[in-house]
Specification:
The chain has 19 helices and 27 strands. With about 775 residues, the chain is α+β, with helices and mostly antiparallel strands. The protein folds into 3 domains: about 25-125 and about 175-265, Aldehyde oxidase/xanthine dehydrogenase, a/b hammerhead (Aldehyde Oxidoreductase, domain 3, Alpha-Beta Complex), CATH 3.90.1170.50; about 145-170 and about 265-440 and about 580-650 and about 665-755, Aldehyde Oxidoreductase, domain 4 (2-Layer Sandwich), CATH 3.30.365.10; about 445-565, Aldehyde Oxidoreductase, domain 4 (2-Layer Sandwich). The strands form 6 sheets. It has an 8-stranded mixed β-sheet with strand order 3-5-1-13-10-11-12-21, sandwiched between helices. Strands 7, 8, 9, 14, 15 and 16 form a 6-stranded mixed β-sheet that branches. Helix 14 links the parallel strand 19 and strand 20 (about 490-495). Helix 6 (about 200-210) packs across helix 7 (about 235-250), helix 9 (about 305-310) runs parallel beside helix 10 and helix 14 packs parallel to helix 15 (about 510-535). The structure holds ligand MTE and dioxothiomolybdenum(VI) ion (MOS). Ligand MTE binds near residues 226, 509, 512 and 698. Ligand MTE binds near residues 225, 227, 468, 510 and 627.
Length: about 775
């Protein structure tokens, strides 16, 4: 049994020795490669009035300039037909208007600088608040509704209202976007792409080139991180490379520099939420009404499904009888925001955690108790109608964290510490995670695989998923070895390509092991049925070896390879009513985080983290623990460090991303790792109906980091008098924490205005003052008896 063993990542040795090949490494193995460089818009919004590529041709080494006139097919790089590949209206600073091909990257860069472009600047909407005020929206405006919110609020003992804002996040995968395109003698286009979604890359390349899909093959060796950023965004780059290759007959390489990657490509959506919430006297949630507005950027990309997932996760792990959630996507003149680990789930969950964190002191209830008493119990359903199965696992994980994390004694120690230290405060918070597994869009929940058993008994597998470091390939090798009953070393895996397994879904939604694992298992089982039929009474291993049986099968003309297919059963989703059973199951987890905040500077340390996470019957425990640690730290980065800033001034730089590199954009590094970091997998967590009882693990742990934000809030509140409700900006950078602590200290804490019962929360209150330069969070909690 390979499944369940703590094996190393299948490429670990290659990763650490630098031998692992990524798309751009192939350039050095390819002859005659041309390099592509973009000509980028300096304006956030403008009409292009003239484009003259001629001066570029004067530059030595420039081979060709690609413009809209070169596109034989559809001039669009997306699936929504709102992303012209060569635009005539630029929609954000950095928007590429054309691409220059050169013998060297430097020649292409100089050529791009020589291209002459005239623009007629147009008004630009940059911030989310501006977009809301201007009613600049795009796409559908879904509503999730259950019960009667007005009735629920009217019956509630305590009603609060507020605004919650959160920033986006740069993916900062180590490998930037890359594509290398070749054309063979028959006109077959072959694109190596750093893509989470090879099939869609293939489709976009085909439609840009005006070809049928069978003319285009896309391969992805592996990615140096994707995190959702390569789910939709690689297509246009692959199409540019492919277009260049078809026009010049030479291989074309497109690899973004870090600055270009940060300037040109989409990020996690920032969100704005306005809410009203009601609690009963015991602190039980009675009703929640909220309007969530995401910052979609210039085009739709994946903003609608991201919004849908956000709305489906506002409840997080909590039962709320009456719910009314409105969602909308703002259109702004920024990069087109896209998938990012959690896919809107983190943003939805941040809303309810922010609500609970801010209301707990006003209710006079310890946040730990407030959260625990609202957790789902058996028989309850989510606001969109899916029954929450195994909710007792949330409490099992909770109680395990409480006991192994010694939460009670540490809470007492923290209270003592805080009483003794006027300028340093500690906080300890626990938050749960409930994350729906499956693509909301039912059709995507299918996968294919190809399993070859060679005459010598060795096995080669191929499946539709891509490897981005998450360990999918390792798990698939384990599944194949286990199903066939051979040692792990007998199985190899070939790179993902669209001519092996067609019509694949994106490697996303954390479901790739479930889906592709199901397909691999199906393929292996077909082979196994044939082999055991041939073996008859002979038992493999005892009476006949695997190798002998395989050899015998070949000579008996038994087919030794199979294609596998898997579809997740039992799913349905009505995207208009926002109702159904979109998820096969929920992944659960609980985290406790302790922080220490310095009152003079707002700087902080993460002293200790305890996590119990539900990965079902883990396929690969080392991989899963790595995913949990990595997910938590990436979430910690989003919530505490990573501070995307756009120039919102009226100056010439308006709309420019001012944090364009690692020097201005702070990522988590070793120094921010929790000093004590305990991660355990929930036991007795077999999940029926999923491959070998496992559960998806890729995204859910990111949201465990909400506990660090809540711990920082509590530490900041400890600078004030007990019962202080603290409004903390997201990201909770040291600066933001300083201001939060400062408000708590000055007693004024949150700006409190008397809420208007029945006021529609669908518009931000323009009169609400910004509390400090960064937070812009107008907290106007109001307590009504
Ligand atoms: N882990 C690593 N190391 N690198 C990544 O890019 N992406 C995350 C997660 N874990 C990612 C990662 C995201 S956004 C998703 S959806 C899942 O992995 C996708 O892979 P899975 O479906 O195999 O879990
Ligand atoms: Mo992950 S955001 O679903 O690629």
């Amino acid at each position: 049994m390979s499944v369940g063993l703590p094996v190393a990542h299948e490429s670990a040795a290659l990763h650490v020795t630098g031998h692992a090949l990524y798309t751009d490494d192939l350039v050095h193995r390819t002859h005659d490669v041309l390099h592509a460089h973009p000509v980028c818009s300096p304006h956030a919004h403008a009409r292009m009035t003239r484009l003259d590529p001629a001066p570029a041709h004067e530059v030595e080494g420039v081979v060709r300039v690609l413009t809209a006139a070169d596109v034989p097919g559809v001039n669009d790089g997306g699936v929504k037909h709102d992303e012209p590949l060569f635009p005539d209206e630029v929609m954000f600073v950095g928007h590429a208007v054309c691409w220059v091909l050169g013998e060297t990257l430097e020649a292409a860069r100089l050529g791009a600088a020589a291209v002459e472009v005239d623009y007629e600047p147009l008004p630009a909407v940059v911030s989310l608040t501006e977009a809301i005020a201007a009613e600049s929206f795009q796409g559908g405006q879904p509503v999730v509704s259950r019960g009667d919110v007005e009735h629920g609020l009217a019956g509630a003992a305590h009603v609060f209202s507020g605004v919650t804002e959160m920033a986006g996040q740069e993916h900062f995968y180590l490998e930037t976007h890359a594509a290398l395109a070749l054309v063979d003698e028959g006109g077959q286009v072959f694109v190596q792409s750093s893509t989470q979604h090879p099939t869609e890359t293939q489709e976009i390349v085909a439609h840009v080139l005006g070809l049928a899909s069978h003319h285009v093959t896309v391969q992805c060796l592996r990615m140096g991180g994707g995190f959702g950023g390569k789910e939709m965004q690689p297509h246009g780059f692959a199409a540019i490379a492919a277009l260049g290759a078809t026009l010049t007959g030479r291989p074309v390489r497109l690899r973004l520099s870090r600055t270009h990657d940060m300037t040109l490509t989409g990020k996690r959506h920032g969100f704005h939420a306005q809410w009203r919430v009601g609690f009963d006297d015991e602190g039980r949630l009675m009703a929640l009404e909220a309007t969530l507005t995401s910052d979609g950027g210039w085009s739709l990309d994946l903003s609608e499904p991201v919004l849908a997932r956000a709305l489906c996760h506002v409840d997080n792990a909590y039962w709320i009888p009456h719910v009314l959630l409105h969602g909308r996507v703002a259109k702004t003149h920024k990069t087109s925001q896209t998938a990012f680990r959690g896919f809107g789930g983190p943003q939805g969950m941040l809303v309810v955690e922010d609500v609970l964190g801010r209301c707990a002191p006003l209710l006079g209830i310890d946040p730990l108790d407030l959260r625990r008493r609202n957790v789902y119990v058996d028989g309850q359903a989510t606001p969109y109608g899916q029954v929450v199965r195994h909710p007792e696992r949330i409490l099992a994980a909770w109680d395990q964290v409480v006991s192994t994390g010694q939460i009670a004694s540490r809470s007492a120690e923290i209270a003592e510490f805080n009483a003794a230290h006027p300028h340093t405060k500690r906080g300890l918070a626990m938050t749960p995670v409930k994350f729906g597994i499956s693509f909301n869009f039912t059709a995507f929940n299918q996968a294919g695989a190809l399993v070859h058993v060679y005459k010598d008994g060795s096995v080669l597998i191929n499946h539709g998923g891509t490897e981005m470091g998450q360990g999918l390939h390792t798990k698939m090798l384990q599944v194949a070895a286990t199903t066939l009953g051979v040692p792990l070393a007998r199985v190899r895996l070939a790179p993902t390509r669209t001519d092996k397994v067609p019509n694949t879904s994106a490697t996303a939604a954390s479901s790739s092991a479930d889906l592709n694992g199901g397909a691999i298992k199906h393929a292996c089982e077909q082979i196994l049925v044939r082999l055991t039929g041939l073996a008859g009474d002979r038992e493999v291993g005892r009476d006949i070896t695997w190798d002998e049986l395989v050899r015998e099968a070949y000579f008996s003309r038994v087919q030794l390879w199979a294609a596998g297919f898997y579809r997740t059963e039992g799913l349905h989703w009505d995207s208009t009513a926002m109702e159904g059973h979109p998820f096969k199951y929920f992944a659960y987890g609980v985290a406790a985080t302790e922080v220490e905040v310095d009152g003079f500077t707002g700087s902080y340390r993460v002293r200790r983290v305890d996590i119990v996470h539900d990965a079902g019957e883990s396929l690969s425990p080392l991989i899963d623990i790595g995913q949990i640690e990595g997910g938590y730290v990436q979430g910690q980065g989003w919530l505490t460090l990573e501070d995307l800033r756009w120039d919102e001034s009226d100056g010439p730089g308006r709309g420019r991303l001012t944090t364009q590199s690692a020097s201005t954009y702070k990522l988590p590094s070793f120094s921010e790792l929790p000093e004590v970091f305990n991660v355990a997998l929930l036991e007795h967590a077999h999940e029926d109906g999923v491959v070998y009882g496992s559960k998806a693990v890729g995204e859910p742990p990111l949201m465990l980091a909400l506990s660090v934000r809540e711990a920082l809030r509590q530490a900041a509140a400890a600078f004030g008098t007990p019962g202080t409700s603290v409004d903390l900006a997201s990201p909770a950078t040291p600066e933001a924490v300083f201001w939060a602590a400062d408000r708590a200290r000055s007693g004024g804490a949150d700006h409190v205005v008397v809420g208007l019962p029945g006021a529609a929360p669908d518009r931000p209150d323009p009169a609400a003052p910004a509390l400090h330069p960064r937070s812009e969070q107008a907290a106007h909690e109001s307590v009504e008896a």
